[in-house]
């Protein structure tokens, strides 16, 4: 019969081996994408206009659309998820209402992004009349992003020791003032880390945006900053093909002669952006945590 120590070593070795294989596969995929795409990245590629039926196109408008759509989505989803997280962590009691909320969050988090996109198309694009636009894409991504951010806010707040809440209340602060001035500042590193990680998830999303934000990237009039004009860069009612959607479109339509090079370069840019979001989240979380602990 095998001894417990030997069985533990074998199980640990198997787990390390599986983890190592997964890391190697992930690293190989990232290196392959970067190896193929980095030679095609240049300033002209990052700022140029996408072309059809001729070579030399860029991703400037698509890159701007991705960043702008990300900002609009976060402006909509963060206040909602922050309020929901505070309610679930600080005020919610164990009853049927909180059970329904938590079940809804779990259901939303398990929905495929294409289902969210189809719902966004039927509701925001058709019923609400927003058409293919940034606001339709942002609202669809809000549904896609809310479960992740709500759970992140709730878990970050729950990680704050209860003694800090008692200290705030003992100083004469109300429950709401304790949450605002004591609990949230202490949970800020975890909340910001979740925001950055969810931003990377949004930045690389394609399926939900194909049916909501549109598949075209019209030229933008950079001198027109009227938000009601569809040619304005800041208008939320214009179509906005993002970088991830552009990669899908280039590979599916075949109208770009150098489509393989454009797709490889755009994929490398997307991977680099997601890596920046992920490593930035870890760095920001550690930096804020060290500052708060030293203070």
UniProtKB/TrEMBL annotation:
The keyword Acetylation does not apply. The chain crosses the membrane at residues 12-35, 67-88, 100-124, 130-148, 262-284. Signal peptide: none annotated. It is found in: Cell membrane. InterPro entries: MetI-like, MetI-like_sf, Phosphate_PstA. SUPFAM superfamilies: MetI-like (SSF161098). Keywords: Cell membrane, Membrane, Transmembrane, Transmembrane helix, Transport. GO terms for cellular component: plasma membrane. Residues 63-281 form the ABC transmembrane type-1 domain. One of its GO terms (molecular function) is phosphate transmembrane transporter activity. It is a multi-pass membrane protein. PROSITE patterns: ABC_TM1. It comes from the Bacteria. Pfam families: BPD_transp_1. One of its GO terms (biological process) is phosphate ion transmembrane transport. Belongs to the binding-protein-dependent transport system permease family. CysTW subfamily. NCBIfam families: 3a0107s02c. This is Phosphate transport system permease protein PstA. The lineage of its organism: Bacteria, Bacillati, Bacillota, Bacilli, Lactobacillales.
């Amino acid at each position: 019969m095998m001894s417990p120590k030997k069985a533990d070593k074998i199980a640990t070795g198997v787990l390390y081996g599986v983890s190592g294989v997964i890391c190697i596969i992930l690293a190989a995929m990232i290196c392959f994408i970067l190896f193929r795409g980095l030679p095609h990245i240049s300033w002209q590629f990052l700022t140029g206009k996408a072309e059809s039926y001729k070579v030399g196109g860029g991703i400037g408008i698509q890159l701007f659309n991705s960043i702008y759509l990300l900002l609009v989505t976060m402006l909509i989803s963060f206040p909602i998820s922050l309020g929901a997280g505070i309610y679930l962590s600080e005020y919610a009691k164990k009853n049927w209402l909180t059970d329904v909320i938590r079940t809804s969050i779990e259901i939303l988090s398990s929905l495929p992004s294409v289902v969210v996109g189809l719902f966004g198309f039927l509701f925001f694009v058709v019923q609400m009349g927003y058409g293919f636009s940034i606001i339709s894409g942002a609202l669809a991504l809000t549904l896609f992003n809310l479960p992740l951010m709500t759970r992140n806010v709730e878990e970050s707040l729950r990680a704050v020791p209860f003694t800090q809440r008692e200290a705030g209340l003992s100083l004469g602060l109300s429950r709401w003032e304790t949450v605002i001035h004591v609990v949230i500042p202490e949970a800020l590193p975890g909340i910001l880390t979740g925001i950055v990680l969810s931003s990377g998830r949004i930045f690389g999303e394609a399926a939900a945006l194909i049916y909501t934000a549109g598949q075209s990237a019209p030229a933008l009039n950079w001198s027109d900053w009227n938000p009601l004009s569809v040619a304005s860069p800041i208008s939320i009612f214009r179509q906005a093909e993002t970088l991830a959607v552009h990669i899908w479109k280039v590979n599916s339509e075949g109208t770009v002669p150098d489509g393989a090079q454009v797709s490889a370069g755009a994929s490398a840019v997307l991977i680099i952006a997601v890596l920046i979001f992920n490593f930035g989240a870890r760095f920001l979380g550690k930096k804020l945590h060290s500052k708060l602990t030293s203070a």
